[in-house]
Structure formats: structure tokens, C-alpha cells
Amino acid sequence: MRLRGARGFPLPAPSRYRGLRPRTPGAGAELAVRRGRPGVAGPPVRWNPRAAEPHIDAAGEGAGRGAARLIRRHDPSGIPQPPRRGHLPAVAERRTKPGKGAAERVGPCHAVRMDRQRRSHLAHAAHPIAAPIADDSVARLLDRAVADEADRALDLGCGGGEWLRRLLVRYPWMRAEGVDIHTAALEQAREGAEESEVADRLILHEMDAAVFASAHRFDVVLSVGAAHAFGGLLPTLAAARELLTPDGHVLVGDGFWEREPDAAALSALGATWDDYADLATTVDRVVADGWTPVYGHVSTAGEWDDYEWSWTGSLSRWALDHREEPDALDAYKAAAEHRSQWLSGYRGTLGFVTLVLRRSP
User: Fold this and answer.
1) Inter-axis angle of helices 183-195 and 162-170, to 10 degrees?
2) Which residues of 24-48 are buried (b: 16+ CB within 10 A; e: fewer)?
3) Which GO terms describe its molecular function (predicted)?
4) pTM
5) Measured between alpha carbons, how far is 103 from 283 in angstroms, rounded to an integer?
6) How does the average pLDDT of the chain come out, rounded?
7) What's residue 85's pLDDT?
8) Is residue 116 very low, low, confident or very high in pLDDT (cuts 50, 70, 90)?
9) Residue 18 pLDDT class (50, 70, 90 cuts)
10) Most CB within 10 Å of its CB: which of 46, 50, 144, 360?
């Protein structure tokens, strides 16, 4: 018998992971945008953007304030991870594991060949927050999550680092760390931090967010649109709990069904109807897991439309303006396919909720 949630939607099976092959254990890296950050294992490597390969820094010192230092290290677990479930079509495509970027959706593969990380970078040119959340909503969520006494923030699945960049600009006393598996996304995060003059307060780790560990706790742990990296919303919160200070805040965002999905929506998303629940059931599960919502934001139809039009429009604009580029046709086709899937498939069906949580007593 299939169990159903509060509004009749079926309850997801927590142990079922979909859409992606198991992660292959291997070498990861920590990209530290801070002078003098000690390595975890192996010699530190100073990043030289003019060289084809990084060079060993025998003294273990970084290249100076605001410069990036790359420290290679092996996956501490060494254990293959289970396949992750499907995830949001464009909200989390920058973070798909393994490879938080594969296609914009899980399901039938795109016919296009353009590098997925490059496509994501181009598609988010006009909307760097990779979720259907407007700038004022982002600022309000950060204000609710960052307490006056907060000192450290962590983003699990940080992608291009836009949440952390805005946090560090808004709260100049904060320090932050970001974790993502994609080198290109972390390079984008580093560049953004340097442009905003906050690079000396940011550390970036190139590794699987699901196995990240730290010797210290964080006052704010963020993970917006990256639940696929952990196998779902509750496993994401379990990971955040291990890294959070006792009175800290978690800022987490994930999808839910605005209405029961039809065949067109499920096909467009490459999903099954138990990948998500309705909003009430989603929040009930979070509360039952030992969390208290102290604020929340449900993305509006306008925020969704702005995000999707920005995503497809930016990619289309680039393709039209760079027709001589080898990837131009692939980018154009990807934007057209995504736009059709959104408008004819999941628009008005897939929702997105961002919660600010604290531990329940």
C-alpha cells in the first residue's frame, strides 16, 4: 500500500535514490581563499592562474591576501555513495552530483553536448542566485538566519558562491566556507569574492558536500537547492545538524508540489510523484525531525517566472550573440527544450520553499 501525506500526496520513500550513478571515491580538493589556511593532508598547492598546473608551495604559505590556495586531499570516507534522487530542473542544476551540474533535470538526457557547467554559468548571468528567489527575498532570508553574535557560515553545495558572497558583503564581521564538487563553480565563487573584496574571509572546499567535515561548528549552515547531494531534504538537515552550533540557524531550500503533478509535469522533470510532498507535509516532516521553523519563504509565481525567463533568456541571448561559437547551437537547443519543459510541464506544479530553522528543544 502506498502511504499518503496530509493532502493526499504519496509519502516519499527515504531510502530510494534516483537519477544519478553512485559517486566514485577519489581525490578531492580544498580551495582556500585565505592566507595561511593549513592543509588537511598532503602538501599545500598554490594556485597560479598563468600556469597550466598548480605548483607546490613548500613553505605552506598562500599567495597573499585575497589570493586562492589549492590544497588537494583525498575523500576522507573512501566509501562509494548511493545514487542521489532526482532534483529540481534548473534550481539545482549547477550542483548536480557527481560529475552540485549534469543536466538541468534528471530523466531523459539532453541531446546537447555543451559543457554543463559552462551552460549553467551562462544561464545564470542575469539571475546569479540559482533558485527562484528574488534579491529582496534573499536579503530577508539572510537577515533572519544571521544573528548578531554569528561568526561563521557554511554553504553545503555552494555552486558559484552567490549566497556566501552576499552574506559576506552584508555582514562584514562574518567568515564563511563553501563546499562544492565542481572546480569551475568554485572558480566563479572565488572571482566573485575577489570582485566584492571579501575573498580574505572565504574558504572554498572542492569536495562532495555529503562527506564534508570540519573541526569547528558554524553559526549558519546554508543549503539551498542542493538536497540531491545528500539524498533528500531530511538527510540534508542531518548533515547540517552535525556542523551547526547549538543555537545556530539552518537556511535550507527544496522543492515541493504546489499541486498534484500530472504526467506532463513528471515527464518534464524526469521525476516520480513521491520525489516531493505538498508544502504542509514537507514542513511537518521537518518539524518531526527535530527542527523549528523561525521563518520561511515560498517562492511566488513571479519569482519562478523571473528565474525561468532569466535562465532560458540568458542562454538564448548568448547563443544568438555568439553564433560562431561551437557551442552556440547546443546552447540554443538547451534553452528551447528547457523553456518548453517549464511552460508545458511543471510551471505552477513545482514549488520551492526556503526555511530558516533552529533545533527544537
Assistant:
1) 20
2) ebeebbbbbbbeebebbeeebbbbe
3) methyltransferase activity
4) 0.74
5) 28
6) 78
7) 42
8) confident
9) very low
10) 46
Question: Identity (one letter) of the amino acid at 246?
Answer: P
Structural domains present in the chain: 26-74 (no CATH), 84-303+345-359 (3.40.50.150)
Euclidean distance between CA atoms 96 and 117, whole angstroms = 10
Residues 6+ apart with CB under 8 A from 86: 18, 19, 105, 106, 107, 228, 269, 270, 271, 272, 275
Q: Is the pLDDT of residue 11 over 50?
A: no
- The predicted-structure confidence for 238-263, as pLDDT tens digits, reads as follows 999 999 999 999 999 999 999 999 99
| Residue 222, SS3 per DSSP | strand
The upper half-sphere exposure of residue 297, i.e. CA atoms within 13 Å in the direction of its Cβ, equals 26
- φ and ψ of 346, to 5 deg: -100, 0
| CB-CB contact of 28 with 83 (8 Å) | no
CA proximity to 307, closest of 163, 92, 115: 92
| 206 close to 126: Cβ distance less than 8 angstroms | no
Whether the pLDDT of residue 117 is over 80: the answer is yes
Using a 10 angstrom Cβ sphere, with 0-12 exposed, 13-18 middle and 19 or more buried, the burial of residue 236 is buried
How many beta carbons lie within 10 A of that of residue 72, not counting itself?
18
Question: CB within 8 A of 53, min separation 6: which ones?
Answer: none
Distance, in Å, from the CA atom of 174 to the CA atom of 15, rounded to the nearest integer, reads 37
